[in-house]
Design goal:
The complex is a heterodimer of chains A (809) and B (233).
Chain A (H helix, E strand, L loop, with lengths): L4 H13 L11 H8 L10 E7 L8 E7 L2 E7 L12 H4 L1 H5 L9 E3 L9 E3 L2 H17 L6 E5 L5 H13 L4 E3 L5 H11 L6 E2 L6 E5 L10 H13 L7 E5 L5 H5 L2 E3 L6 H14 L5 H7 E2 L14 H8 L2 H8 L3 H13 L3 E4 L11 H13 L9 E2 L16 H8 L17 H10 L7 E5 L3 H4 L3 H10 L2 E6 L11 E4 L8 E4 L8 E5 L13 H12 L1 H5 L6 H14 L4 E2 L3 H12 L10 H11 L1 E3 L8 H4 L7 E2 L2 H11 L21 E6 L13 H4 L13 E4 L1 H7 L6 E5 L4 E8 L7 E5 L8 H4 L27 E8 L9
Parallel strand pairs in A: 6-7, 6-15, 9-10, 9-13, 10-11, 12-22, 15-16, 16-17, 23-27, 24-26
Antiparallel strand pairs in A: 1-2, 2-3, 4-5, 4-17, 8-14, 18-19, 19-21, 20-21, 23-28, 24-27, 25-26, 25-28
Chain B lengths: L3 E6 L8 H9 L7 H5 L8 E5 L11 E5 L8 H5 L5 E3 L5 E3 L9 H5 L6 E2 L26 E2 L5 H13 L12 H5 L5 E5 L6 H6 L4 E2 L11 E4 L9
Parallel strand pairs in B: 1-10
Antiparallel strand pairs in B: 1-8, 2-3, 4-5, 6-7, 9-10
Classes of the chains: A alpha/beta (809), B alpha+beta (233).
C-alpha cells in the first residue's frame, strides 16, 4: 500500500490522539513503517538472542545478536565475552549492514572477459564451479605437483583457517599465506628477544604510563575493543590512579588526540627515540637493575654467539646520545630527558611498538628498540607490562593419512619464504607475487583466496593483480566481490560470518587463552551461498583418496564439537562469565583448583552456546620458563640487529623528513609518505558499508574520499590550498586525492589513509577514494624482510581547484 | 519522576565512533551515500565534534567529543516549533513527533548544538537492507526533522519488563544504544533525580561541565574533561 504524506499525517494523528480515525486499531509500528515505505517489512514475532563472533577485523569480539521473529535487528557485544565485555566498535555495530548488503553475491561467477571488472563475470551453477576446480586439483594431485596449490587467507583463527591449512597439508602444498602482516614485526621482535612465537600483549589496563611509539593503540589495534576497554580503566577505572598516555608520531592521529601529550617526530624515527630514551635510563641509572642483571643478557657484554660487537650499554652511549637522537628525531633534548624520567619513575610504565594497523606492522628495528626499552624498565611478564599470550588447548585433529606425494610436496619450501628470512613461518605475500611473476622454484597453478584481498591490501597491489592474473586458476570466496576476486577466475559466494558455525581462538594482543563459539543467526544461509570450509571439504571429497579422508567429519558443526571435546580434556579454564565468575576462577586457579562450571564435554558445549565460549582468565606472571625461551633462558638484548638495522636505516630513511641530513629544499621537494589506517576501514574492510564511510576522519570531518594531510608550511611552499585536488607521485605510481592543510602532520611529509580506492566492494566502496599502497616502492627492511613503506617519497602537485569550501578559487 | 541524563567522560573517550553507528543502527537511520555527504545531508543523531586545532604555526591539538541531543531542560528548539512537533516530556526527554513536523527547520536553526537532522530525501534501504530494520523505531519520511531520542523506545520496553516482574525500574534497565556500545565505558546514563545514581555521582565531579552552558539551555548531557596525570580522579 502506498501512502501519501497527507494519509500518513492522517494515520499519525489517529494514533497520537488514540482515536484510530481510518486506521485499524490493531496497527503496530511495523504496519506503520510499511505504510511510510511499501518496501519496508519490519519483522514481527518473539524476541530472542544468538551469540556469535565479529569477523570484520581480527579483534574477535563476542556478539549478541538480537532477533525479532528470527530476524536479526541489532548486534551488540556479548556481555560475558572477555574481549568485548558487552561493548563494540563502530565496525561491529555495522555488522548487520554487511549481512544485509545489497551487493552480496548469490551465485558463483565465472570470468569470461578481461580482468578487473565485475562486468566480465557470468553467473554459473555451483556444480559447474566445483567440477572445474576439482578437476584441476585432481590433475595436480595425479601428476605429483601438489605444491602448485596456494592458499591466500586472512587471519581469523577460525574453522576456515584450520580447514585451509589441513587442506594444504593433505593435498601436499606448503604455501599457506596470511596476507595481513599486522602482527609480524611485533612477533618477530618478541621472538628475537624472548624466543617466544607470539604477538606480545600489552597490559595497558594495569599500567600508569604508556609511551606509544606511533602505535594505533586506540584505533586499528589487534583487538580494538579489548584495548579500548583496557584504556577506559587505565584512565578512570582506578580511583586515585589515572594513567598517562604519551603518543609519539609524525601525524597527530585519533589515538594522539586522546593522549595527554603528542610528541611529533620525523617520520620513521620512532625507534631512534626509543633507544634515546633507553640511553637516558641507562646513563642516569633509572633502569630496572634487578631485572636486567637476573633476566637479561647482552647489557654489559655483547650477546655471545650473535656476532654483535657492542653491549647494549655501549651501543646506547655511542650511538644514541642525547644530541644525536635529538638531531635525528627532531625532538628536543629537554623533552627526551623529561619523557625518559617520567617513564622511569612512574609506578608502572609501558612502551608500545609502532603497529599502525592490520596492514602496517611497523619495522623490526622500531619494535626491537621498544622491546629493549621495555626490558630496561623490567616490563616483560610483569603486571602492567608486556605479557605473552598462550594458545588455547583445542583438540588437535587426527593424524593425516599417509600419502607420499603429499609429504614430498609439503616438504618443499614455501614459495613465499623460499629466499632467506627467519624460520618463523611468517608469510610474505609480496614475495609470493614476485615469484609467481618471475617464475621461481615452482609454478602456482591453482590459488584459493579467502578472507583476504591482497590486490587491495598488499604493499604491491599492482604486482599482485598481475600475479593473480597469471595464475591459471584463482578461486576467490567473497560475500561482496573483493578487488582480488575481480582478477581471478571464479568468485564463490560465501556465507556471511553471522550465518555460519565457527570456533575461533583468541585474538592477538589478548594475554589469556580463549575459544569463542559462533552460531548462525538464522537456520539456513542466504540463498546460493556456501561457507569456504564447507566448499574446501567438498572439494577434498571430490579429489578423493588421502585428501578426502583427511576430513573425517560430515560437517563443520561436528568438527567443532570434536575440538571442544579436546578443550574439555585440557582440564582447565571455565565458561565465559561475569566479572564475578572471572574473579572466582582466577582465585581458584591461583590456589591450584579447577572450577569450570561444567562436568562433561556435553555440558561444556551447551554452556559455550549460552555464554559465548571458554577461557582461562588466570595469568601466571613471571613464569620465566614459558616466556623466556631463548638459548640463554634470558631476555636477549640484540645489539647485533639493532646495530645492523640502525646502520641500514640511515640513508635513505634518515632523509625521509625534509630538513634532515642533506635534504634539498627545492620548490617541489620529495615528501615523506606517512600511511595510517582509520579504524572504520582498517585492514581494507569497511569501505563497503556506508555507515563506516561516514566516519573516516572525525577531526577533519572527512568521509567518502581519500585525503592527503599536509603541513601549512609545506603546502605554502608548493602552492597548495586546503581542499585542492592534488596528485601524489612516487617512483612507483601516482594517485589523486583531496589536500587537507593541517598542522597535525609534521613538515616535509604527507599523511594518507589506507583502506579506500577499491575496484570491488560493492556500490559504496567501488571507485571511492584512492589506494596509497600503489605509491609504495618495493623497499624492504634488511634482516626482517618486512616491507618498508617509509622508504617511499612522493611529489605533490595541484591538479584542480574547483568545487566549494574554504581555500578554493 | 525520573529525569534522564547522560555523562560523557572525555578522559575515557577514544573517539572510536561506536556510539555513532550504534545509534544509526538502533534508530533505523538510512544510509545516504557520498553525494548526500558532500552536500552535508547525511544523517546521524550523534556526531563527534572536533575542536581545538591550532592556528598556523603553533602546536596543534585536537579534541573530539561525542555530541548527542542535550535534551535541554530549557530547550530552544521546542519554543520555535510552530506546530508543537517537538516537546519536552515529563521526564525531561525532548521528543520529536514526526507526523506533526512540517519540515520548516526552525528547530534545526534554533538548536545551538546543531544535533537536529532534516530528511532531504525519502529513506532508501536498498534490498535487502530493510530486513535488518528494528521494528521498535519508525522510519521517517522525507521532509521531517529527526533527532536523538535517548532511545526512549527502550524506556518503554524497560518499563514493561519491570512491571511484568513487579518491581520498580532499576538503574541500568534503560540505557540508550550509544551508551551500551561504548568500548571505553565513557558514557553513563541514568536518572538525575536519583541522588544515588551513577550519573548523579559523576555530575558532582570537579571535571564536570556542560556544552554552551552559558546559553541557559540547561543541558542534561554533562561532560567530564580530561584529567591530570597524577591528579585526583
Amino acid at each position: 500500500m502506498n501512502v501519501t504524506r497527507r494519509r500518513f499525517l492522517g494515520f499519525a494523528a489517529g494514533t497520537v490522539a488514540g482515536t484510530a480515525a481510518g486506521v485499524p486499531a490493531s496497527w503496530t509500528l511495523s504496519d506503520w513503517m510499511a505504510a511510510i515505505d511499501p518496501g519496508v517489512r519490519p519483522p514481527t514475532g518473539p524476541e530472542d538472542a544468538v551469540l556469535s563472533v565479529c569477523k570484520l577485523c581480527p579483534g574477535g569480539c563476542g556478539l549478541r545478536v538480537r532477533r525479532i521473529g528470527g530476524r536479526p535487528v541489532k548486534v551488540d557485544g556479548n556481555l560475558l565475552h572477555p574481549v568485548s565485555g558487552g561493548r563494540l566498535c563502530p565496525k561491529g555495530q555495522a555488522a548487520l549492514q554487511s549481512l544485509f548488503h545489497p551487493d552480496r553475491l548469490s551465485s558463483p561467477l565465472r570470468r569470461v572477459g578481461p580482468v578487473g571488472s565485475l562486468d566480465s563475470f557470468e553467473p554459473r551453477p555451483w556444480e559447474e564451479a566445483l567440477a572445474e576446480i576439482s578437476e584441476r586439483l585432481r590433475l595436480l594431485h595425479q601428476v605429483g605437483r601438489p605444491e602448485s596449490l596456494a592458499i591466500l587467507r586472512g587471519n581469523q583463527r577460525g574453522v576456515a583457517d584450520r580447514v585451509a591449512r589441513r587442506f594444504l597439508d593433505a593435498f601436499g602444498s606448503p604455501t599457506d599465506v596470511v596476507v595481513d602482516r599486522g602482527e609480524q614485526a611485533a612477533t618477530l621482535a618478541l621472538y628475537l628477544t624472548q624466543g617466544v612465537r607470539a604477538a606480545p600483549a600489552y597490559d595497558v589496563r594495569s599500567t600508569d604510563y604508556v609511551l606509544s611509539f606511533g602505535s594505533s593503540l586506540l584505533e586499528a589495534w589487534s583487538s580494538p575493543v579489548h584495548m579500548m576497554r583496557a584504556y577506559g580503566e587505565f584512565r578512570q577505572g582506578r580511583p586515585g590512579r589515572r594513567g598517562k598516555l604519551v603518543q609519539i608520531e609524525p601525524r597527530l592521529s585519533v589515538t594522539g588526540s586522546s593522549a595527554d601529550e603528542w610528541i611529533d617526530v620525523r617520520p620513521g624515527s620512532e625507534g631512534i627515540l626509543a633507544l634515546g630514551i633507553a640511553n637516558v635510563l641507562v646513563s642516569e641509572g633509572l633502569y630496572d637493575r634487578d631485572f636486567v642483571s637476573e633476566r637479561c643478557v647482552g647489557f654489559l657484554e655483547p650477546l655471545a654467539g650473535s656476532g654483535g660487537r657492542l653491549s647494549l650499554a655501549e651501543l646506547l652511549s655511542r650511538r644514541y646520545g642525547l644530541e644525536e637522537v635529538a638531531d635525528r628525531t627532531g625532538v628536543s633534548n629537554n623533552v627526551i630527558l623529561r619523557i625518559a624520567r617520567e617513564f622511569a619513575t612512574a609506578r608502572s610504565r609501558l612502551a608500545v611498538g609502532p603497529r599502525k594497523g592490520p596492514l602496517l606492522p611497523g619495522s623490526l628495528f622500531d619494535h626491537l628498540a621498544v622491546q629493549t626499552l621495555n626490558a630496561l624498565a623490567g616490563n616483560p611478564d610483569r603486571p602492567g607490562g608486556v605479557l605473552v599470550p598462550e594458545e588455547a588447548p583445542l583438540a588437535g585433529w587426527p593424524e593425516l593419512p599417509s600419502d607420499e606425494s603429499a609429504a614430498a610436496g609439503r616438504a618443499r619450501p614455501r614459495l613465499d619464504s623460499a629466499e632467506g628470512g627467519f624460520e618463523l613461518g611468517l608469510s610474505d605475500p609480496e614475495r609470493l607475487a614476485e615469484l609467481v611473476l618471475r617464475g621461481g622454484f615452482y609454478p602456482i597453478e591453482v590459488a584459493f583466496v579467502m578472507g583476504a584481498d591482497p590486490v587491495l591490501t598488499s604493499m604491491t597491489p599492482e604486482r599482485f593483480a598481475q600475479a593473480i592474473e597469471k595464475i591459471p586458476l584463482v578461486v576467490s570466496f567473497a560475500t561482496v566481490p573483493t578487488d582480488t576476486a575481480l582478477y581471478g577466475d571464479w568468485i564463490l559466494p560465501e556465507t556471511h560470518f553471522l550465518e555460519r558455525w565457527d570456533l575461533e581462538t583468541g585474538p592477538p594482543g589478548v594475554p589469556f587463552p580463549l575459544v569463542s563459539l559462533s552460531q548462525p543467526v538464522w537456520g539456513k544461509a542466504s540463498p546460493g551461498t556456501r561457507s569456504a570450509p564447507d566448499v574446501l571439504i567438498e572439494l577434498a571429497a571430490e579429489v578423493g583418496g588421502s585428501v578426502a579422508s583427511a576430513f573425517p567429519w560430515p560437517d563443520v558443526p561436528s568438527m567443532i564439537r570434536a575440538e571442544v571435546a579436546g578443550l574439555f580434556a585440557a582440564r582447565r579454564g571455565a565458561l565465559m562469565g561475569s566479572e564475578f565468575d572471572e574473579a572466582w576462577v582466577r582465585m581458584m586457579e591461583g590456589a591450584g583448583w579447577w572450577a569450570p562450571g561444567y562436568r562433561t564435554a556435553e555440558e561444556l558445549w551447551s554452556g559455550m552456546r549460552e555464554s559465548g565460549g571458554w577461557w582461562d582468565p588466570f595469568y601466571d606472571h613471571g613464569d620465566w620458563r614459558r616466556v623466556l625461551l631463548t638459548d640463554s633462558g634470558r631476555f636477549e638484548f640484540r645489539t647485533d640487529l639493532l646495530q645492523q638495522l640502525g646502520d641500514d636505516r640511515r640513508p635513505p630513511y634518515a632523509l625521509a623528513a625534509a630538513g634532515s641530513e642533506g635534504e634539498p629544499l627545492g620548490a617541489r621537494p620529495l615528501l615523506a609518505l606517512v600511511l595510517f589506517e582509520p579504524l572504520p576501514v582498517a585492514g581494507g574492510v569497511g569501505a563497503e558499508l556506508p555507515f563506516l564511510q561516514e566516519l573516516l576522519e572525525p577531526g577533519l570531518e572527512e568521509s567518502w574520499s581519500t585525503w592527503v594531510e599536509i603541513h601549512p608550511e609545506t603546502a605554502a611552499r608548493i602552492g597548495i590550498r586546503d581542499h585542492d585536488r592534488v596528485r601524489l607521485t612516487s617512483d612507483q605510481g601516482s594517485i589523486e586525492a583531496k589536500a587537507r592543510v593541517t598542522a597535525r602532520i609534521v613538515e616535509g611529509a604527507v599523511a594518507v589513509p589506507v583502506g579506500l580506492g577499491r575496484k570491488g566492494g560493492g556500490r559504496w566502496a567501488s571507485g571511492c577514494g584512492a589506494n596509497p599502497l600503489r605509491l609504495l616502492v618495493a623497499a624492504r627492511e634488511t634482516v626482517s624482510g618486512l616491507p618498508a613503506p617509509e622508504a617511499t617519497r612522493v611529489r605533490v602537485a595541484v591538479v584542480g581547484r574547483d568545487g566549494h569550501g574554504e581555500g578554493r578559487a | 519522576m525520573a529525569r534522564w541524563g547522560m555523562v560523557i567522560d572525555l578522559d575515557r573517550c577514544t573517539a572510536c565512533q561506536a556510539c555513532v553507528v550504534a545509534c544509526q543502527v538502533e534508530n533505523n537511520v538510512p544510509p545516504t551515500g557520498a553525494d548526500q555527504a558532500e552536500l552535508g545531508r547525511s544523517i546521524s543523531w550523534l556526531r563527534l565534534a572536533p575542536h581545538g586545532e591550532a592556528e598556523h604555526g603553533t602546536r596543534p591539538q585536537m579534541h573530539l567529543m561525542p555530541v548527542p541531543c542535550m535534551h535541554c531542560d530549557n530547550p530552544p528548539c521546542t519554543k520555535v516549533c510552530p506546530v508543537q512537533a517537538t516537546q519536552i516530556g515529563e521526564e525531561g526527554l525532548v521528543g520529536q513527533i514526526y507526523a506533526r513536523c512540517i519540515g520548516c527547520r526552525y528547530c534545526t536553526t534554533a538548536c545551538p548544538y546543531t544535533v537536529r537532522e532534516f530528511n532531504w530525501k525519502q529513506p532508501d534501504f536498498p534490498e535487502p537492507m530493510e530486513q535488518g530494520l528494528s521494528p521498535d523505531v519508525s522510519i521517517r519520511p522525507k521532509g521531517v526533522v529527526e533527532k536523538c531520542t535517548f532511545c526512549h523506545h527502550r524506556l518503554q520496553v524497560a518499563r514493561d519488563r519491570a512491571q511484568l516482574e513487579d518491581r520498580p525500574l532499576a538503574e541500568g534497565d534503560y540505557v540508550p544504544a550509544c551508551v551500551e556500545s561504548c568500548p571505553a565505558a565513557a558514557m553513563t546514563f541514568g536518572d538525575l533525580e536519583d541522588p544515588n545514581s551513577e550519573v548523579s555521582r559523576l555530575k558532582q565531579s570537579q571535571r564536570a561541565f556542560q556544552l554552551l552552558e552559558e546559553l541557559g539551555t540547561e543541558p542534561k548531557v554533562t561532560y567530564l574533561s580530561k584529567g591530570e596525570w597524577g591528579g585526583q580522579v
